[in-house]
Design brief:
mainly alpha
Amino acid sequence: MRQSFYSQNAWWLGNGLGLTFASSFGQTFFIALFAGFIRETYGLSDGAWGGLYTLATFASAACLIQFGRLADTMPLVRLASVIILIYAAAALTMALSNSIVALAVAVFGLRFCGQGMMTHIAMTAMARWFRANRARAIAVAAMGFPLGEAVLPFLTVEAIALVGWRTAWVMVAAFLLVAVLPTMFVLMRHGRTPGGEGGDETALGMGGRHWTRGEVLRHWSFWILLPGLMAPPFIGTCAFFHQVHIAEVRNYDLAMMALGFPLYAAVSVASSLGAGLVLDKVGVIKVLPAVLVPMALAIPILALPGGIWVWYLLLVGTGISQGVVVTLVGALWPTLYGTRWIGSIKAVATAAMVVATAVGPGVTGLLIDWGYPFPEQALWLSAYCFVMTILFAAVAPRLARMQTPLAGQVRTEGAD
């Protein structure tokens, strides 16, 4: 009996999902749970805490560009092990810090290892390990993001209430060392070719060759695509970051708003898995012009008059967009530029995403201070998505002509 793609590749798919789930401890939604305690402990205003957080995030993005290329030269299991150890050390620093400098170092470590490198390693692994079913593999790995968003906030709030916020960070460090690190070794014990060392069994990109990072940065395609692909993390982060402001402007109850996040997670998972199936059958380039349409339609919903159902509709629409986009982005770069240097290339793209999530709340918050509520800003953000959609539709045919057919490449990932 022929095994399904998912059962035959469960070890490697599980590894990607585990890494993205573990990235949650360095994501904004998780660190924000401790914001009140951090401000009180260190005597920081909202602006001072936000400024420290933004600077630490910028620093993590800069380091990601430099160290992300290690995914091309080190076995991924070894690189992930080193990052997990640093990640745990950052969590312990957060628990034990007693100065602003130590706090900044801790936040930097969490952002660099969590949002940055853990995500980067997971998606680089899926891009390199899978070819014909690359989008499906990325979709499974990406399930770790909404899973963390759905499960961790409640558990963390309960942990803080029971043991305090500092001990909660000790628990995070212990989880990384006792659960994540050993599990990764168990899932990787079967080996995988190519294993991240940059061997010859790699998939080609446009023009039938592997692109270096320098070549990619000098080519028009990267700079045309990147601004549009940064829109979903920018917009999604802004909407979630300003949910208290949205509640005040629209007279929503925060507790009722929070009930929508499990729905958001479920929709995101379903759309990501569905997008994986479609992308592998139709092709990434063909779907590219439609990828921002869900977000373009979802975000202006916030400007509609109505009750809490408006927020739920926004979460559903945003969940669809995020699920589709994270799968497409993960598959797009290796499709266009090959996999030999995909670690270096994805490091730049991931760093850009990190910067977008850092800049977004600040820019939109400044506009709020100037008298433009976020629901009004949503209309302009939607217009931007539609403009980028038109641009994607214009360049997609040219990219398709430059693309190397998948049929000429070796399929190594097993059953479909």
